[in-house]
Write a structure and sequence with these properties.
The chain has 92 residues and is an all-alpha fold. Helices cover 73% and strands 0% of the residues.
C-alpha cells in the first residue's frame, strides 16, 4: 500500500482521463469538447486521489507521504557546506 499511495492522484487522474477521452472519441464528440472533458476528468479524479491519499496516510499513522519534500538551501550557504551536509546525510 505504501508503494502506490504517493502516486495515487496521478494514477487516478490519468486512468480517468484516458477512459473519458476514449469514450468521447468513440462517440464522435468534437475535439474541443473531448479535451475539455478529459482535462476535467483528470482534475476531478486527481483531486479525489489527493483526498484519498491524505486519508490513507493519516489513518495508517504513516507520515512518510507528508515528510517527502524538497531540501531547503539556506541563503548564504557555501557549496562546501552543502556537499558536507549531503555526505553526512548519506552516511546516516
Amino acid at each position: 500500500m505504501n508503494a502506490i499511495t504517493p502516486q495515487l492522484p496521478t494514477v487516478m487522474g490519468s486512468v480517468a482521463s484516458m477512459l473519458v477521452a476514449f469514450i468521447s472519441l468513440m462517440t464522435g464528440v468534437s475535439t474541443e469538447t473531448c479535451i475539455m472533458k478529459t482535462v476535467s476528468a483528470f482534475l476531478v479524479f486527481a483531486g479525489f486521489g489527493l483526498i484519498l491519499r491524505h486519508a490513507l496516510s493519516s489513518s495508517s499513522g504513516d507520515d512518510s507521504v507528508e515528510s517527502e519534500g524538497l531540501d531547503v538551501i539556506i541563503p548564504g550557504s557555501t557549496v562546501g557546506e552543502l556537499i558536507d551536509a549531503e555526505e553526512n546525510a548519506a552516511t546516516n
